[in-house]
Structures
1.
Amino acid sequence: MQKFNTKTLVLMAMLTALEIVLSRFLSISAWNTKIGFAFVPVVLAALLLGPLYAAIVAALADFLGAILFPVGAYFPGFTLTAFLMGLVYGLFLYRKQGFWRILAAVALHQLILSLLLNTLWISVLYGSPFAPLLVSRLPQCAILAAVQLAVIPLLVQLAPRLKAAMP
């Protein structure tokens, strides 16, 4: 894991801001479905900085995005899920990448965190029955899994160039 210094702090701030913009303004959202590229800054944080920093970027972006640009009521469960997402990507992608590691990270994120945990939070928050909500969120998870499996290998190839370009 990198040292926490000014360069790391600035990079984390930029990735947090980018995640907020991608999540709040450049994604397709319905009340229980969200499709977009907000995972990209978190994956970059995981690749460049490691699990803890990626988790902080994801959680901070979720919290600040919810406070600054609310879509609904703030619920800390979603921030917990965001933290865990950054942690998962960091644990699987920092320093060592490959198809199976990318597949495992995307599967854990989409099946456990997004499909099960976020569905639970939506169910608790809105009082909706869990099972029908889970079924309605399956297409979102399938689409996002495919998008992530296509985009993350590109980010893995880009990461060394970004790291080399940083002073």
2.
Amino acid sequence: MFFSASNLTGGYGGVNIIEDCSFNVNRGEIVSILGPNGAGKSTAMKAMLGILDLKNGNVVLDGKDITKLKTQERIKLGISFVPQIKNIFTELTVKENLEMGAFLNDTNLSKRLEEMYDLFPIIKEKKDQFAGELSGGQRQQVAIARALMTEPNVLMLDEPTAGVSPVIMTELFEHILNIKKQNIAILMVEQNARQALEISDRGYILVTGKNAYEGKGDYLLNDKEIRKAFLGG
């Protein structure tokens, strides 16, 4: 696998939030991490990014063990992360937000900006507008585009559709599918489990910080036990 995490155990203040969790994702693949509130989904993602100190486990990117690397070093290796909240600079314009995203790779800035405008047409329309004036769905598009400015090979999304309407959620998932076509490995934490699995190649379901189920997206969608417990029947 291109990006993998094995047997992750860690938490905060001596209390484990995740225990023995494992995930993997290949380039050109969407993998969702699902589960009830408090299951440890976002904590697991932070552990893979190096924000959380691990008691056990390892993280590997393209055959290289990056477990001991700091977050900034992992980002330089091609991992981009979009947090659920505070993921844009509201006082900057949309274009300035994207330019900030290219701080590690500004050699092809103009070309990359045009690619983001093509991928997210609303961003081109709003490029000179202050990001704080945008709707929630538009802000998420700016946040994802900014993460893509570094031309990452792994894109990690924490609740990309949180707080948006069903119509906007569908639109955001369509954008994520288009990003997948760029041969990027996409790892996504989501509360909208059913909709996430519909676009995911594979998924993991966490319960109380542990892997409970895993499999292809359509398998998890069609399993009666999983559907009843996690997908609303």
